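Task: encode each sequence below as structure tokens.

Item 1
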Amino acid sequence: MLFRSGRPNIRSHWRDFGEAGAFFNEVMWTRFSDEGIVLTLPTQSFEHELTLRVGDKDVRLFMLGPAHTRGDAVAYVPQDRTLFGGDLLFIGGHPIVWDGQFGNWIGACERMLSWDIETVVPGHGPVTDKPGIRAVKDYLEYVLREARARYDAGLGWEEAARDITFTAPFDAWLDRERIVINVHAAYREFAGAAAAPADRIAVLSATGRYYFDHRRCCGAPSPSSGQA
């Protein structure tokens, strides 16, 4: 993802990236520090599915992306009826389609819902259950449907994102400016361009405009978790 802190000098030179840099500085770099964090690389990889024995329990790993990113994995512990959903699950906040497709993410939600689970630990937000997964699925279906209607009507992706409104429960979710990134992703799918690299600076610039306009309009910052 663009602007990850590992890129040298980007964090200290955010002004060089215009509106995109101003937005990312506002929601990430002024709120969070990566000091002391050590990147630990995996020692084992897998494709599709892998079962590990941890103590006396099976932990089943599934690769269900690309959705949020190109490699979205979850961990399911059948004995405990527990799912660790990773970044496929944003609870109480707008999920963000960076490198995947809506259909894959919706399908991933459907697959998770098919399992015998009681407790769901998301990548973002509080511990939840199956209704929490359904809410994410409902959001993705809503955005895809609303984006398609505006795409067919000839609206540009930024205009379409600003035109989409939210009702309960989505109107109370954090990070509403992510609708811009999500509509852009949907438009790329509709145009058959999802596999090509996106112009991340342009997308983040438009997201920043939405964020700061909402702050000026409403008299307070748009709620943001600062988590991508």
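Item 2
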Amino acid sequence: MQKQIRDPQMKLLEPAPESLIRKDHPYRKLLSTVNLQEFCTPLAGIYRKDFGRPGYNIESGFAGLILQWMEDLSDRELERFLQENNAAKFFCGFNLSEKTPDHSYFSILRKKIGIDKLTDMINEFGDRLRAKGLIANIFTFVDASQMISKVSTWEERDKAIAAGEEALNNKNIEHYAHDKDASYGNKGKNKFWFGYKRHVAVCMRQGFITATAVTSAKVSDDKGLKEVCPEGGMIVGDKAYCLDAAQKAMKRKGCHSGAILKNNMKGKNREKDKFISSLRMPFEGVFSKMNKRVRYVGKAKAEFQAQMQSLVHNFKRLIAIAAPPYYRSSIYN
């Protein structure tokens, strides 16, 4: 397919980006499964003709944000990716010679969308997946992982000591840290980080993420469960979720506990725990493919990042389980 374009000096035949993309490309598969125009309907209210210098439509902009997390790109890397990658142009609906957004456009777009609107969109998408039978609250894997805001806090420590503090810790870190919402967190005795904690629930039917929440890193896994706990079914988790806060959250939501018990707990059954561990194992990799570095300052921006990463995970799952390259049935039909 070709179209005629005008050039000040000469006339050229410009091929459509679609004709340059292989038939089994993941971007093509995703576009044949998810109707992005329908998905972006809730964003219609933020659309303006002058949004972005060339007046980019909101579907193209949001498609760019999807690519950002599919390919783990910074804003500047995304700008160049759209300039140079024909598949990216195709996915976002740009012609080969069309000017694509610069890095500042995506920063503005994220701010305009905001975490509340993004969460509503993702929840609506989850409802559609449930309607298609791809999600069911029968067995839900839960876990939490680190989101690192800053690798080194020596500068903050020096400021704290200079101000008369004996040490830098969660009681005083907000007075010295650039990111006031972040804190120190730990997993076990040897893993410490400064930043946030990502809490995730995964439906064990097809591996779709059903809920994502971000808390300060100091919030323990068991206390964070209430943010992502589903209604009903069994919660499959590690030893952190056998603690009181998690058990109460499960009870409130009518869930059965499938958490591994600590060794000194009454009712400990090693054979049962071994079976639960085998159930959990295939879903442990959900976190391994997500960048743990927080790119932005503040909890709201960290949560936007986590929600987009979860959405992209679900899009990739659709590609993995779906279909032939020309799977025409939209998840929104």
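Check on item 2: Confidence is low (pLDDT under 50) at residues 1-11, 323-329. The CA atoms of residues 158 and 164 lie 10 Å apart.
End of task.
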